[in-house]
Structures are given as C-alpha cells and as structure tokens.
Amino acid sequence: MDPITSDVDRLLTRIKKALIVRFSLRVDQADDCEIDKNIREGVELNGTYLWILMCAILIASIGLNINSTAVIIGAMLISPLMGPIMGIGYGVGIYDFRLIHKAFKNLAIATVISFITSALYFYITPLSGAQSELLARTSPNIWDLLIALFGGMAGIIGATRKEKSNVIPGVAIATALMPPICTAAYGFVNGNVAYFLGASYLYLLNCIYIAVSSILIVWFIRPIARREIDEKLQLRIRLFLVSVVFVSFVPSVFIAVNFVHKQVFERDVSRFVNKELVFSKTFPIDFKSSYKNKTIDIVLVGKPLDEKTIAEIENSLPEYGLAGTRLVFKQVGMHQEDINAMKTALARDILEENRAEVEKKEQILQTLQENAESAEQKVKEEKENMYAGIAQEIYIQYPQIHELFFADAYVSRENEKNIDQIPTVIIVSKKNLAKDSRTKIEKWLKFRFQTAEIEVIFVNR
C-alpha cells in the first residue's frame, strides 16, 4: 500500500474516533436505573406539583396581561409541565404502556387545571387588552415546531446526564409551554376563537415535538428498562408517530409561508416609505400596512402633495415588490392639531423603544414646530400690517372715525350646525355716519380683505 495513502487512512480513523468520543451521549450518561427513576418521578401529580403549577400559570397570565417578558420567563422557569411530556416520550421509547397512560392522564389533568386557573384570572382582571406578548402565541408556525423539537431533544439529553445542569429550565423557557395555555384561556374568556385555536395548536405542537424528540433520544441510548415487543406492534407505533408528526406539521408550514410573506411585505413597505416619501416640506409621521388587504395607510404632515406627485409615488410601488398594493394618503397641514398627532406617534414609538423612529420623528417634530411658529408669526405680521394700512386710510378719509377693532369672529347661524370664522371690523365714530358712507366703507373693506364674508359693525361713542 502506498505510504501516503496509509497515513491518510490512519489520520481519518483517528479523526473518526475523536468525533465519536466528542459527540457520544454515553460518556457522562447517568445509570439507566437513575434515569428511569428521575423521569418517573417527574410524571407524578401530587399536591406540591399542582400548587407550583397554579402559581406558575397565574404568574404567566399576569405577565401576558401586563406585557412583561421578564415575568413570563419567571413563570416558565418554575413550570413543572415538562415532566409528564418527557414521561410520554420516555414511555414510548421503552414501550412502557402503563407509564404512557399515566403520563398522558397527568398531562391532561395539569393542562385542564392550568386552563381553568388562567381563565379565572382573565375573567376577573380589569385589563382586557391583548398585548404583544399574548399575540405572539396566536400564530404558531414551523419555527415553533423546530424550537419544540430541538428543545425537547436538549431536555431529554439533560435529564439522562449524571450531572444535572440548567438544561431543563432553559428548555422550559425556549419551548414556552405556559404562555400558550394562558393565551388559549384568554381567547376562551373573551370569545376570540382565533386566539383560542392558535394558542391551543401551539401548545399541542410543543407537547408533540418535545415528546417525539424524547422518543428519538431514548431509542438511541436504548436504556435497560426498554421492553421487548413484537415487530408488528413496533411498526404500528412508528406509523402512528409518523402520522401524528405529519398531521401536526402541515398546518405549521402553511402558517409559516404566510408569516414569511407578511414579513417580506412589511419589510418592502418600510423600504418604500423610507426611500420614496422623502420631501423637503412634507413628512410622513405614521403609516400602517395591511398584508391581508394589500393597503398602506400613510399620514403626511406639511405641504400637501399634488396629484402628479402621488401618481409618481404609486407608479414606484412595483420597484419594491408592492405591485397591486393600494396607497391611502391622509394629508394634513402644519396646525397645532397636526403637531399634536406627531407627538402622539412619537410617544408610541418611545413606549415601543423604537430608537430609530424616535430620533427621526423628533427631528421632524422640531422642523414642524419651527415651520408652524414661523408661519404663525408671518401671518400675524401680515395681518398687523394690513390692519395698520386700513386704519390709516380710514382715518384720513373719515376724520369722525377715531377707533377701529379688528378680529376673526366665530359665527353661529340659526338652523346651521357649522361654525364659521369671518373677519370682523368694529368702527367707532364720534357721531353717526351717513348711510352712503357706511355702504362705501363696507364695500371697500370687502375689497381689501378679498372676501364678501366680512362683518362690519358701526358704533357711536
């Protein structure tokens, strides 16, 4: 044999042995009897278990209700639901049908108690809004399935080790068994079928794939507690598992595809808004997109866009993968109510800790405030100059007039709901003005104010 070939073969053999040792699950595996004992103890349903379970479910419900991630994580850390699920997987893996029955029964009891406890909380609590943490559990997809699969695998591997680590608490957080039950209870109490079904499906996915991953690992390590059954029964069990996995897998794929399309749509909308809606005197202060309806609602503050500009914006939609999407513009000016709307949008972004949007909208708000103040000051100066010119001309033409009052009056008319704002001039004279003089003054003022809607009041004093 070629010496070089011989050396390569030895090197590959050494690498293979090293990899086997590194990735072997038997190196620090606990005694089979200890594994069996620990998993069976985790399946037990006693008073302590139930009290911890109810405390955990109440903590999770409160966390979802107040939208606190830290509280929800705390609830998942003390949740004891992993025990019966891994018991099911271990029972199937060693073909212990009595253990499977017991674990199924205890998991069902624990699930019902958790659901009732959470439902009672959501029935009593005055906070009825669906927060983001709760909404996140209503649309399970293939990623939740993969998390449950790998989480369950890590859980059963950790449970079969000599040295107990923080694997089980970590798996409890990753797979999140408690929040879906709480969300299902919330949907049930509030009559929201979509929330109830979505969260129930997520909980079912977690249970199934944690159990399936446990079965695979138990089959791999082949503990001595494994029972010997005939090949036909083994085949039936495996066919049943494949059927369960397939039936639970298919809906998650459809949901995942829809989720991906929605995320892509929202990303394209953000790109479109950030690149196309950039103007010197017009600012987008808020926008909402609907993947379902294929619409983008945009609120603009500042100088209104003309039809030509809007048409150009709409024609650019296909460039961002948004062909067929309908734009809905709400254009407002630079009045105080518009600035208030900007402040409301800014406050919402601060609450959502959206730093980029906060900084962007703070700059826009500052520009709007400056423009509004500048516009108001300009209008005020123009009015003062116009009023001063009118006053000087009247004083020259009619010496008997010695005082003028200018104002914008709000007028309410009988049988009309609207309140009109019209310019008003109060003319104070030392004696009554002749009728033709009053008529001339009124016509002249209408010409100067460029409006027929003007109120002129003559007063003798």
Automatic annotation (TrEMBL):
Keywords, comma-separated and alphabetical: Coiled coil, Membrane, Transmembrane, Transmembrane helix
Domain of life from the UniProt record: Bacteria
> What Pfam family is a match for this entry?
DUF389
Transmembrane intervals: 48-66, 72-95, 107-130, 142-160, 167-189, 201-225, 237-260
Question: Which chain positions lie within coiled-coil regions?
Answer: 348-385
Entry keyword annotation includes Glycosyltransferase: no
Name of protein: TIGR00341 family protein
